[in-house]
User: What shape does this take?
Amino acid sequence: MASVLELAKKINKTYKDDKLAITADITPKYTRVATGAFGFDYPLQGGLPEGRIVTFAGLFHSGKTTAACLAVAAYQRKYPDKTCVYIDMEHSLDLQFQARMTGMQLDKMVYMSPTTLTGEQVLDTILEFQQSDDIGIIVLDSIPALLPAQALENDMTKDPGMRGTIAKPLHRFLIAMSGLVAQKQNIFIMVNQVRVAGMTFTGAPIYAEPGGQGPQYYSSVKVRFGTRTFIKGDKNDASDGEGADGFRLKFVITKNKCGNVARGGGFMSFSYDKGLMWLEDLIEIASKFDFIKKNGSYCTLINLETGEAYNDEEGKPLKGYLKDLKAYIYEHPAFQNEYIAMLNKFISGDDTSYGDILDAREKAEIKEQEESVEAHNSGAVISDGTN
Assistant: This one.
């Protein structure tokens, strides 16, 4: 009788895949797409993992679509020969605005806004796209807008019941899609909504996510978006958007099978005039975690690999006020690339000792909603507050 290792080699040969069965001491290394938003890449340990399914979930107006477009733009920069696909089931994507905010290249992507396709047909279409040799990121925006054939075939007066949901077709689709995405090493992003499903006896809302358990199971990474705030001058947490200069999206990483979630969450900021405020966020986060050393109001840019200060063209240490360091990074593209590459390499390591970008209050708010979703999806009894 053959040994287990001999059988493993035979299986690999039969299916023409030398990595199908391997010894478990081979640690997988994840290739990631850095989004360019340091407040997003830091908690993701370098960016979105390739070959994986990702879910962006949150309440309305929390920034899920903008984050998906940012991911598309980043993928286009890294893989200019690949073609990304955006499926807008809600027919509400402002392409020009998102391109201005994120740098997404509209002439290098396919945009679909299906008005006559059933949910099952849309899922079949995604599987067809996934078979393409040049497929890049695929975004499905969003799960609740997928209407199954049985629901569409009934008139408004008939209730198809549980059979009228997209959960079962979506679950079967994700089983197939997870293997295909791993094979092609692209990324599939699902956008899901968080809805109020009832109230507790104390009046607190109970949150739920449509689509059944499939998106929970088959997503390797889940990003849970919280309340969007607005930027007004030096203030970045205004609740009123009137007269704002931009907006900030906050989130928590609630699942990450390609790393841990010890870094919790983060934020990304956008200016209505300039788009992604990547440099402002980078400086803010690098300063928070002492990636930039502070001595009073003076700061020093540190090479985290050597522990020494970076020097300018004249050999002098890069020191100054934060606004001066920001100006230097912005005005020196070669150094900018070097510095960002160093940060990305550093944050992709296993060191998670730097904690969370969000404060305890912000984390608690998002965590409470996420736990409510999990309780609802597990079948826990929900009270709507009535007797």
In short: The chain has twelve helices and 18 strands. Residues 381-387 have pLDDT under 50 and may be disordered.
